[in-house]
Design goal:
The complex is a heterodimer.
Chain A lengths: L1 E6 L7 H12 L3 E7 L2 H13 L4 E6 L2 E8 L7 H11 L3 E5 L9 H17 L6 E4 L14 H9 L3 E5 H6 L10 E3 L1 H8 L4 E5 L1
Parallel strand pairs in A: 1-2, 5-6, 5-9, 6-7, 7-8
Antiparallel strand pairs in A: 2-4, 3-4
Chain B lengths: L12 E3 L8 E6 L2 E10 L6 H18 L3 E11 L5 H17 L3 E9 L4 E10 L15 E4 L5 H9 L5 H12 L3 H10 L3 E4 L4 H13 L1 E5 L10 H6 L5 H10 L3 E3 L5 H8 L7 E5 L1 H13 L6 E8 L5 E3 L1
Parallel strand pairs in B: 4-5, 9-13, 10-13
Antiparallel strand pairs in B: 1-2, 2-3, 3-6, 4-6, 7-11, 7-12, 8-11, 9-12
The chains are: A alpha/beta, B alpha+beta.
Chain lengths: ~200, ~325
């Protein structure tokens, strides 16, 4: 296990973040221990680590902050940290639901699969950043949906849940929306065409 | 710091220090008032010509935020002797071009030697005394319109780190170079209650000044606030300027933020802006007309971001 120490005392923003990022890229697994002397650098480095899904600890010592970021490989096979790193790189992660069923075939099966998918998504850490629902997908965010519980769980851990307003209107569901917010094509397009990864659920 | 200066009681001084407004306004005659402002700073981009334009657009903005028209400008330059004079002339050319675009004239200036280059302008403008738009007129019920996206502080921080995607820089630079003239013309055509431009104190800092000066509270909807492309993503990797945290720490006791806002989302709300947009408080019956006038004049980024409400125990809320 590698331990890399980085002394960023005396460096102004954004250099401490830059140095930390470099150090994290240099080691396959292990710890990066960064010493900074100002709260701005502390907050920015903590945010960098949290965004990459890496555990971070901060200690205060004589006016300095010692930040330990763990890039772990112990949790399982060697592929794990890589998977974590690539998941972090592909943020924001968006799931795009165009139907209230998962896959084509028997509707009963489609419903079972969508429930299973939602439960799986809700168990992800961190959960997806965005769930977008269009066309009959909006039935999933409204009263009577079988997946409201996992959706609400994700919403409470920060996932943005967006239902197409035109679709809600078409299916007369506007006042039945139970999870997330009403959105529009402008916002939906901004997410779909923006950075990150979009997973289509046809 | 400014509160320790003596109060000015001259009745001709229509807008002074008291309400932390964007510029001073001094009445000359029954239908003419002078607006004066000064602003200069260190380079935010590497290209000296673009930096000149941005610094000028930023200085001119204070005139527009008061509803006025710029008339005359004076250059303020700080410059190290070790830097090539060619760089300075490019900065000045950028400033001059932007001032000309604004329909004003550069009439002189002053240069001092300094270890780091700085550039900006002192600008004088004119406005009808009855058409001055201050930050003190917002009323409960007013809609709040923001005319440029947020995130220039974060993008320029990423730029310094060499981590800003080129397309994100291009949009940010274009935003910073663009004048607030069209937005100001649109609000004057409609008649609005209050206006301020968003600069170093960030959206919520300048909103707090408006709320205090107007005796109201302002409620924002985070999802409606326009952001520069990639700014949120860059903020979440820690590329947040120190000013954003200073703004946050100063304002936090009076600001009520939804718990669902991530640290990166908060950073954007407090991100110090260079040559930011106008925040306009408009009575609801004139909102549609304002959006129309903004669209006609080609202010594409303008969005309704919140509303003014009667004073609450919080000054600013973001949901």
């Amino acid at each position: 296990m590698f331990v890399k120490e980085v002394d960023c005392r005396g460096l102004a923003c954004p250099l401490p973040v830059l140095e930390t990022k470099k150090a994290l890229e240099e080691i396959p697994t292990g710890k990066v221990v960064v010493t900074v002397d100002n709260p701005v650098a502390r907050e920015n480095i903590t945010m960098l680590a949290a965004n990459a899904g890496l555990p971070v600890q901060v200690e205060e010592n004589e006016g300095n902050f010692i930040i330990t970021i763990t890039k772990e490989g112990d949790k399982g096979p060697e592929a794990a940290p890589q998977a974590q790193a690539s998941a972090a790189a592909e943020r924001p992660l968006t799931y795009f639901f165009t139907s209230n069923l998962f896959g084509q075939g028997a509707p009963e099966l489609g419903m079972v699969l969508i429930k299973s998918l939602m439960t799986t998504l809700a168990a992800m850490n961190p959960p997806p950043d965005n769930l977008i629902f269009i066309n009959s997908g909006v039935f999933l965010t409204c009263a009577g949906s079988p997946v409201l519980e996992p959706l609400q769980k994700m919403a409470s851990s920060g996932t943005r849940i967006l239902s197409c307003g035109t679709c809600l209107e078409y299916y007369k569901l506007i006042d039945k929306l139970q999870a997330g917010k009403i959105s529009n094509m402008h916002e939906i397009n901004a997410i779909l065409s923006g950075p990150g990864k979009v997973v289509n659920i046809p | 710091m400014l509160r320790h200066l003596p109060r000015q009681d001259d009745p001709r001084l229509l807008v002074g220090l008291e309400t932390s407004d964007d510029a001073a306004v001094y009445q000359l005659t029954g239908d003419l008032a002078l607006i004066m402002t000064v602003d200069f700073f260190t380079p935010v981009v590497d290209d000296p010509y673009l930096f000149g334009q941005i610094a000028a657009a930023n200085a001119l903005s204070d005139i527009y935020a008061m509803g006025g028209k710029p008339l005359l400008a004076l250059n303020i330059v700080c410059y190290p002797t070790c830097l090539s004079p060619g760089v300075m002339s490019e900065i000045l050319r950028g400033g001059a071009d932007k001032v000309r675009e604004a329909g004003a004239v550069i009439a002189g200036g002053h240069t001092v030697e300094d270890s780091e280059p700085k550039y900006g302008l002192a600008v004088t403008g004119l406005v009808h005394p009855q058409k001055v738009v201050t930050n003190a007129g917002a009323s409960p019920g007013d809609a709040l319109v923001l005319t440029k996206p947020l995130g220039t502080g974060i993008i320029t921080t990423a730029l310094k780190a060499g981590l800003a995607p080129p397309e994100a820089c291009d949009v940010a630079i274009k935003t910073m170079c663009s004048l607030n003239r069209e937005a100001a013309e649109a609000m004057q055509a409609v008649g609005v209650h209050a206006c301020t431009d968003i600069t170093g104190f960030g959206l919520l800092g300048h909103a707090a000044e408006m709320a205090l000066a107007s005796g109201v509270s302002l409620a924002f909807a985070y999802e409606r606030i326009p952001l520069l492309p990639r700014a949120l993503e860059l903020a979440s990797t820690g590329l947040v300027p120190g000013g954003a945290y200073r703004n946050r720490d100063y304002l936090l006791p009076r600001v009520n933020l939804a718990v669902s806002l991530t640290p990166a989302q908060q950073a954007l709300l407090f991100d110090p802006q260079t040559s930011g947009g106008l925040l306009i408080a408009v009575p609801p019956e004139r909102l549609e007309k304002l959006l129309e006038e903004l669209a006609v004049r080609g202010v594409p980024g303008a969005r309704v971001v919140g509303r003014a409400v009667a004073r609450q125990d919080w000054l600013i809320r973001v949901e």
